[in-house]
Amino acid sequence: MPGPLVERVSLEFEAQEAWPKDVKLFQPYEIEQILLPDNANCLAVQALLKMCNLDFTVEFRANAEAMSPSGKVPFIKVGRFVIAELEGIVQFINGKGISLTDKLDIEEKADLRAYMALVRNVIENAELFICWIDHETYNDVTSIRNGSVYPWPLNHFRNREKRNQVIKKLKVLDWYNKTLPEVHEEMANCCEALSVRLDQNSFFFGDKPTELDALVFGHLFTILTTPLPRNDLANIVRNYPSLINLVKRVETKYFNREDGKNI
Amino acid sequence: MGTVHAKAPTQTASNISDFAKQSGLKQESETTDIKEIDLQMVQARVDRVNVDGLARTKNDIVEDCVQDLFKAHDFQDVLLKAHKAVVKLDELGCFKNIGVYIDTSKGLNATTDGLEVTFEVTEYKRITGGINTQVGNNEGSILFAMRAPNLFGRGERVQTEYTRGSKKTSNFNLSFIKPFRGKHRPSLRTSILQAHSEWPNSGYKQLERGVQLDFGFYSSSLFKHNLQWEGIIRDLSTLSRTASFEVREQSGSTLKSSLKHILSMDIRDDLIFPSYGSLIEITSELAGLGGNIGFLKNELFFQDNYSLLDDIVVQTSFSAGYMLPMNKDKKITIADKCYIGGPLSIRGFQTRGVGPHVDGDALGSTAYWAAGLHLFTPLPFRPGRGGFGELFRTHFFLNAGNVGDFSLEKMSKGDILETLQKNIRVSYGLGIALRLGSMARVEVNYCFPYKFDKGDQTHPGVQFGIGVHFL
Questions:
Q1: Residue of A nearest to B360 (CA)
Q2: Which residue of B has its CA nearest to A84?
Q3: A7, A136, A145, B450: which is deepest, by most CB within 10 A?
Q4: Contacts of residue A22 in chain B, CB cutoff 8 Å?
Q5: Which residue of chain B is at minimal alpha-carbon distance from A11?
């Protein structure tokens, strides 16, 4: 067995290598298992990798969440590395000399980080709120899908455990006690801010996409296309045609799908 | 345990002391003018049995234990049956202390050969507890226990235990135990348990939470059976970020629902350094009645001891096991697999060191066999003979074993044998074994791995082992 130092050195060499061919992105099953917030994040990472023109294949695993080093989906496996979530993956890619933001100046980069945080803090929390706190959605969709990969009675345990985790998180962020109209208002404000920033550009920062475009695409596309008992989030997003256009643009350009047929 | 006190008039008092020595009973009063008599020739019958000190314990279970005494015909029989009754009373788990007094019976209904047997018992308090140290599989642990013995007066008890080990394991269990009456000595145990364990050799940790039902009984005086059902939720996760992807793939929650049958027979004269007798343990586990884990696993452990000279003992041991998948929908995880190697198994290898490894993580296999040939002798030149030196043994060993993976669809029977015969691992060595209390053994060995596969992790040189169950 090689010593830890040798291992670390070899890992570092590996890290500097070019993008290997067998990169895999792990995520939960799309049709029966994945939930809205997870799906949004998985799609965002897929969009990011496609924007960077990096090859990967998607692997579906029921236990993708447990496999992930951060406990969140998606994660990618590059050689011996496993890297989770959009921010981590962006950093990893930057380490390989690939970046979507190298043309931006410092001010723009700060803006980008701020808008990324806004999406994370508002849209993602709104999605979590709808999926786990709203009783109708939880009972009709979330609990069934989240528990679908577990046998009875493990599904109930897992649902309760996961729901408690989400509640804890939302409590810390002061979202748990919000009412539905308040959530809608937050969501509308966030979309407003995003559409103001986007203005008439094709992407948020000029004519080249950045990770912000990937993140916004992931969330908005998923919100628009996921059938839920209440589609109020989708209705809010539909009030912002410039955002809808951005989603369509990314979809046609990077996912080679027909012009936004689902939206 | 208890003490048997015997008083008899001078004409019958006799070679009681001889008998007492044979049967391990303690004899208290000794008078100088005793004549030698054969106890079997002394006619006796038990007129009365008194049990003193019963408070919560119900009469019926105590009656069951002492009833046999009335069948005794001679004095020796009375003594033996009294001793058996003490053992049975002790097994109830209700009494802290049991004493026996035998006297000639007096009063109106007394017969000429009549005896009166009195058991003096002290019941346990409502709640007892304690802190102990324990030795498990190559790790020491501390045990906090609380018991409520004899809850409803028939030996029922509730106990809760928490153990914390030196290797970051922790266990909690709460059980209710109910012994039943009957000649097969059945008992039922239901427990709720939570166990956390870490397996650095395989790169994973596991949290198990679940329920267990255990029904134990004896089919004869030697064969002990345990029928168990357990429903356990297991959360498996990697120990570190650098764990191999093969282990990472197994992370997540699984539910195992399994039926288990354990048959054991132990006729060794000692648990730690037996000089004769054998031990057999056969375990069959069928997982997959509900849950998403499915396999059939059979394991066998056999140990035989043969004393060459006074205290030079040859010990042979053999263990083998295999598991089969149930069907495609049910999984087998890394935690269900079989592992061999280590100071308690095939010495000269790392723990779980025999078999397939990826990035240093042992992945386990579905079939194995392992055997050991040991020679235990006293220390050279026998320092501390008869005292301290008896805690030690010199230990020579030869271990062999192999692992294999097979599925019935892919292989015929011949192939299985071939896989298990190929790449046999052999190690040998010598060392010193130490008895630790009456439960555990410590071994310090110098090992020479002789034959090994390139995927194995060997551990040549000094190896330290502490545990209960050694190969």
A1: A1
A2: B241
A3: A145
A4: none
A5: B242
Q: How distant is the Cα of A74 from the closest Cα of chain B, in angstroms?
A: 14
pLDDT in tens, A211-242: 999 999 999 999 999 999 988 999 999 999 99
Contacts of B103 (CB under 8 A, 6+ apart): B7, B115, B116, B118
Residue A226 lies in a domain: yes
Q: What is the mean pLDDT of residues B396-407?
A: 85
- Please report the number of interchain residue pairs, chain A to chain B, with beta-carbon separation below 8 angstroms: 46
Domain membership of residue A75 (yes or no) is yes
What range does the domain containing A54 cover? 4-95
**Whether residue B19 has pLDDT greater than 80:** no
Mean pLDDT by 10 residues, chain A (263 residues): 52 65 93 93 95 93 93 92 93 90 90 94 95 94 94 92 95 94 95 92 90 95 92 92 93 75 53
Answer whether A158 touches B (CB < 8 Å). yes
3 state DSSP class of B146: strand
B:254-313 residues touching chain A, CB 8 A cutoff: 254-255, 290-292
CA distances from A60 to A19, A34, B144, B189 (A): 21, 10, 44, 42
CB contact under 8 A, B245 and A77: yes
Q: Is residue A260 part of a domain?
A: no
pLDDT digits (tens, 9 = 90+) for B182-215: 788 899 999 999 999 999 999 999 999 999 999 9
My answer on whether A90 and A127 are in the same domain is no
Q: Which domains does chain B have, with CATH numbers?
A: 2-123 (3.10.20.310), 180-467 (2.40.160.50)
> Is the minimum CB–CB distance between A263 and chain B shorter than 8 Å?
no
Of B269, B281, B359, nearest to B315 (Cα)? Answer: B269
User: Strand pairing partners for B377?
Assistant: B394
Same domain, A168 and A79: no
